[in-house]
Amino acid sequence: MVPTSEADSSALQNSNRSLELALAAARTAADNRGQQIEVLDLRGVTPIFDYFVIVTGASRRQLHAMSEEIDHTLEDDMNDRRDGIEGYNDSRWILLDYGSVVIHLFDQETRSYYDLENLWAGAPKVDLTGVVDPSQTCPPEDVDAT
Question: Which pTM was predicted?
Answer without folding.
Answer: 0.86
